[in-house]
Amino acid sequence: MNGVPIPKHPRVIDKPGMKKVKAIDYCERCGRWSNGFINLEVAHVISKGAGGPDIKENCLKLCGPACMAAGCHGLDHQGKIDNDELFGIIAVRENKSLDEIKEIVHQAWRFSIYE
Fold first, then answer.
1. Domain locations in the chain?
2. Span 12-27, pLDDT tens digits
3. 39 pairs with which residues across the strands?
């Protein structure tokens, strides 16, 4: 350690507009607050692995950890939460319609999010 900064994990998001999402200290889906025992993670509705963009309209704070299939983030990774539900939460947070959020993500992503 000796004063050497710890490198950021490559999945840490530092894009413009993401400070708002990173600053949230509760699960945006179930409302659990971070209290030292509840792990909160920035989750992508359209996953990074699928090319999902690092923009606030595609990200929200969920309880987890996803890697242990726990909490809302774990349910999301198991496919048990519909993307429209997550986009709806983001729409309320950003004071936009569901369609506006989906269009923003669609424009930032290379594939269609519409069925």
1. 19-108
2. 445 667 888 888 999 9
3. 64
